[in-house]
Amino acid sequence: MTARPFVANVVKIEYFGTTGFYNWAVIHHCNWSGASPSVAALDSFATTLGTLWGTDMKAEYGSALFLNTVTITDLTNALGNQGVASPNIAGTAASANTAQNAAILVNYPSSIRYRGGHPRSYYPGAASNTLADDTHWNSTLITNVGTYLTALQNDYNTLTSGGTTLAGQCAVSYVTAGAPRVTPLVMNIAPGSYTVEARIASQRRRIGRK
Questions:
Q1: How many domains in the chain?
Q2: Residue 89, number of CB atoms within 10 A of its CB
Q3: What's the pTM?
Q4: Domain housing 167
Q5: Residue 144: inside a domain, yes or no?
Q6: How far apart, in whole angstroms, are the C-alpha atoms of residue 48 and residue 67?
Q7: Nearest to 8 by CA among 45, 27, 28, 36
Q8: Closest residue by Cα to residue 98 from 123, 122, 126
Q9: In angstroms, rounded to a whole number, what is the distance separating the alpha carbons of residues 76 and 200?
Q10: Contact 156, 168 (CB under 8 A)
Q11: How far is it, in rounded angstroms, from Cα 25 to Cα 59?
Q12: What is the pLDDT of residues 21-58, one digit of tens each?
């Protein structure tokens, strides 16, 4: 597989976890400014972001779901550093999680037209007590996930360590019209620019998505 081109002044933020016997992951990208990110700075960012999950999201999941690691990689060049935190945070909801194929869909707006329509994130399906009915999350979950995303985007715009500052969430496009881009397209995502969908989604299209 051909290696992807570098993306100057951008980090990839990967949230990795497990739910029962299955793995899950959420991947974001973020601009950075200032000094080139050191391992220590990236470790610090990863630790803070993992802590935020524990503050705002663990209560939405049953105890079988864990956020295991947060990994942040500088995509600027081949010498870009990588930082890791291992929060190992378990969900604290009293009820069990929904089906493994269920997901919470977050849409982000984009002024760029491309196949797929716009950037999105798929979070693992939450605990069963967050359901409004068989196909929708309840309003409390939507509000709570929004609270998390607002705080997360604030961190993506303000965290500073070792002379490096995170400078805003973005999305990265590596392909256009089915062909690799010579230079990846970076699409900035403004704070507060997201929609948490009420309909239960699935990356595997077993339930349906918007």
A1: 1
A2: 19
A3: 0.93
A4: 10-196
A5: yes
A6: 13
A7: 36
A8: 126
A9: 36
A10: yes
A11: 18
A12: 899 999 999 999 999 999 999 999 999 999 999 999 99
